Amino acid sequence: MLPVFSIIIVLILSLLITRIASVALTLTGLSQESARFQARSAFTGVGFTTTEAERVVNHPVRRRILMVLMLLGNAGIVTAMASLMLTFTGTEQNTAVFWRIVWLGLALLVLWIAATSSWIDRHLSSLVGWALKRWTKLEVRDYARVMHLAGEYGISELAVEPQDWLAEKTLAQLDLPDEGVLVLGIKRPDGSYIGAPKGSTCIYAHDMLILYGRSPVLADLDERRANTAGEQAHQRSSAEQQHVLRKQTQIDPYT
């Protein structure tokens, strides 16, 4: 049974490593979806699309993260394959092989549930993000010095999907400034770029938004869907922003 436990441990570590890397990449400004794709691609050695590769390779911090992922991925895959071979060799008893398959199947099922659980994802990502901010300097981006980013405020890329709350609406309809979010730019799927877009500018599915605001709000926007819950999330975020503004007014004597 030792080979079975070995491969289970390798799979757990692989899941944890890619999750840590995903959160680390989001701290460099990538959207959550893009960060997860890049982390899994680097760890498994699948590769990237041309556009994604340019955005990662040209960023020194992202490049270092993916280099470590590639190294760990190669070692992890080799270890997993070796453990898998040991699991089904070295014994001629059909019963032993059967129970090894059962244990391995159950472990894979549990890992699949953990990997697809939004509750686990939310709490694990929060924990990893806190740890990375506490013990690393990954939140220092290339543009941090220029824009004087500090505290909860940052810049992030957000890929708009068809089912997102942001899709098929103008900036005026979204009223993102009411949530403390500014749209700095929009990159269209055809490669065109709209800088400092106006309120009449419409956001379409597959656009890439460059956003500035508080990190929790940007993360919520990335998960927000086009339904009643999405509208309620907008209202809650707007109310919270008003609270933030009142606190800032108390701190700043010139407002």
How does this model look, in words?
The protein folds into two domains: 2-135; 144-251, Alpha-Beta Plaits, CATH 3.30.70.1450. By secondary structure, the chain is of the alpha+beta class. The chain has ten helices and six strands, in the order αααααααββαββββαα. The longest helix is centred in the first third of the chain and has 28 residues, at 60-87. The chain has helices at residues 2-27, 32-44, 50-57, 60-87, 94-116, 118-135, 144-147, 171-174, 215-223, 228-251; strands at residues 153-159, 169-170, 182-187, 193-195, 202-203, 208-214. Helices cover 62% and strands 11% of the residues. The mean pLDDT is 76. The protein has a four-stranded antiparallel sheet.
Please sum up the structure shown.
The chain has 255 residues and is α+β, with helices and mostly antiparallel strands. It is built from ten helices and six strands, in the order αααααααββαββββαα.
How many DSSP-defined strands?
A: 6
Helix share, percent: 55-70%
Q: What's the average pLDDT?
A: 76
Strand percent estimate:
5-15%
Overall 3D geometry?
globular
Tally of DSSP helical segments: 10
Report the radius of gyration as a whole number of Å: 22 Å
Strand numbers in spatial order across the main sheet: 1-6-3-4
Order of helices and strands: HHHHHHHEEHEEEEHH
Please give the domain count: 2
Separation, N- and C-terminal Cα atoms = 68 Å
- Main beta sheet: strand number and arrangement? 4 strands, antiparallel
Structural class: alpha+beta
Uncertain stretches:
none
